């Protein structure tokens, strides 16, 4: 990491390598005794700088965690006949990069839904009703999980749908006349 203002921070780890460019009004101080790095801004009174301070800190935290441990999202498919598979080729969509795999969802439509897995994300199906997404970038992993969830958002009457991570839904009572 560099403490030069307006620089790009390189983060590398066992999962991969990422970079993040910090604005010119931010700097990183390194404390050798405590072996920590601190992100600081020039003017603590400026609202824009304070807002970006927290945003940059969160992005750096996610990048460090992604490079060291990786980010995961577990999707549960709840419903009769709902299942998912990972396939090497798709019939309805084309690959955007060589070697791209596809998630094929059977969630109550007359046809299977095929979604291309983004670069940097690995998907597996430990069970037919579970999808495990892993990757370095949290934003990409969670965006792809949201894209899958969009096809069957959990509904409050029967509790069917695609649930991301530990998501739960409170069931509503039936309307009785």
Would you write up a description of this structure?
By secondary structure, the protein is an alpha+beta fold. It has two helices and eleven strands. It has a four-stranded antiparallel β-sheet, covered by helices on one side. The longest helix has 22 residues, at 47-68. The radius of gyration is 21 Å and the shape is globular.
Topology diagram in text:
Layout: E1 8-13, E2 16-21, E3 26-31, E4 36-41, H1 47-68, E5 71-78, E6 83-87, E7 102-106, E8 113-116, E9 121-124, E10 130-135, H2 138-149, E11 161-164
Antiparallel strand pairs: 1-2, 3-4, 5-10, 5-11, 6-7, 7-8, 9-10
Mean pLDDT: 92
Query: How many beta-strand runs?
Result: 11
Question: Which of globular, elongated, flat, extended, rod-shaped describes the shape?
Answer: globular
Q: What structural class do helix, strand and pairing data support?
A: alpha+beta
Helix content: 10-25%
What is the rounded Rg?
Answer: 21 Å
Unreliable stretches covering 5 or more consecutive residues: 1-5
| Terminal CA distance | 66 Å
**What is the ordering of alpha helices and beta strands?**
EEEEHEEEEEEHE
Total of DSSP H or I helical runs spanning 4+ residues: 2
Strand content: 25-35%
The largest beta-sheet arranges its strands as: 9-10-5-11
The biggest sheet, with number of strands, parallel, antiparallel or mixed sense and barrel status, is:
4 strands, antiparallel
């Amino acid at each position: 990491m560099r403490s030069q203002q307006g620089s790009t921070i390189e983060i590398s780890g066992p999962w991969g390598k990422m970079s993040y460019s910090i604005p010119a009004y931010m700097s990183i101080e390194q404390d050798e005794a405590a072996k920590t790095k601190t992100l600081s801004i020039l003017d603590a009174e400026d609202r824009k700088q304070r807002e970006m301070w927290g945003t940059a800190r969160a992005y750096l935290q996610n990048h460090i965690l992604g490079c060291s441990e990786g980010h995961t999202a577990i999707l549960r498919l709840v419903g009769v006949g709902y299942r998912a598979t990972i396939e090497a080729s798709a019939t309805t969509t084309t690959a955007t990069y060589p070697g791209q795999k596809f998630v094929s969802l059977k969630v109550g439509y007359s046809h299977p839904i095929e979604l291309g897995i983004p670069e940097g994300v690995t998907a597996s199906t430990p069970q037919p009703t579970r999808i495990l997404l892993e990757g370095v970038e949290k934003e990409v992993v969670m965006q792809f999980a949201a894209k899958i969830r969009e096809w069957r958002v959990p509904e409050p009457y029967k509790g069917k749908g695609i649930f991301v991570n530990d998501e739960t839904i409170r069931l509503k009572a039936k309307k009785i006349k």
